[in-house]
Amino acid sequence: xxxxxxxxxxxxxxxxxxxxxxxxxxxxxxxxxxxxxxxxxxxxxxxxxxxxxxxxxxxxxxxxxxxxxxxxxxxxxxxxxxxxxxxxxxxxxxxxxxxxxxxxxxxxxxx
Amino acid sequence: xxxxxxxxxxxxxxxxxxxxxxxxxxxxxxxxxxxxxxxxxxxxxxxxxxxxxxxxxxxxxxxxxxxxxxxxxxxxxxxxxxxxxxxxxxxxxxxxxxxxxxxxxxxxxxxxxx
Lengths: 111, 114
Prior knowledge:
The structure holds two protein chains of two kinds.
Chain A: E1 4-7, E2 10-13, E3 19-25, E4 31-38, E5 42-51, E6 54-57, E7 64-66, E8 76-78, E9 87-94, E10 101-102, E11 106-110
Parallel strand pairs in A: 2-11
Antiparallel strand pairs in A: 1-3, 3-8, 4-5, 4-9, 5-6, 7-8, 9-10, 9-11
Chain B: E1 3-6, E2 11-14, E3 19-21, E4 23-26, E5 33-38, E6 44-50, E7 56-59, E8 62-65, E9 75-77, E10 86-96, E11 99-104, E12 108-113
Parallel strand pairs in B: 2-12
Antiparallel strand pairs in B: 1-4, 3-9, 5-6, 5-10, 7-8, 8-9, 10-11, 10-12
């Protein structure tokens, strides 16, 4: 089955801890994206990557970091510097110049 | 900058009612336009798209027409079902510095009652 997987579906962490969210795709897409979704806010772009070993900050990159060492993987680390990390995180991928395909999301709760 | 403005809900309809969700955009150039749908607890799925003026996208009984003169891409369905209950997002693509990004509206939650 081709698609995008995000794991885990639910994640709980204590404040002050870094946490890494997984995103894997087997669609052979060049571009990958991370979004944050909060109630009433729509989707906000955190980071995106057009090719391996390259990525750019989105609109709300502060407190987050990413890597793109392999075409199929784009993990997101939520650091302790992120002031309000509790949210629903969505990963997406796309072939160049086409629509984005989304994973099922990870709901992160930090207490 | 480029932006998308869409109706804010939530909206509740009865089954078989007519649905319109307004979406207008501001963009330099001629972006492609999209409607995505998010069912409870899931990621987003592409519902339909249009890539140039006067194109009509359609899927699952939903339609939207790219209107350049009014910078709009309103979503319509003639008869909604309970299974259409979801959050609907309008989006446009933005090419900036050689990179492509999507700009999303805030989403509109639709509930359809039997």
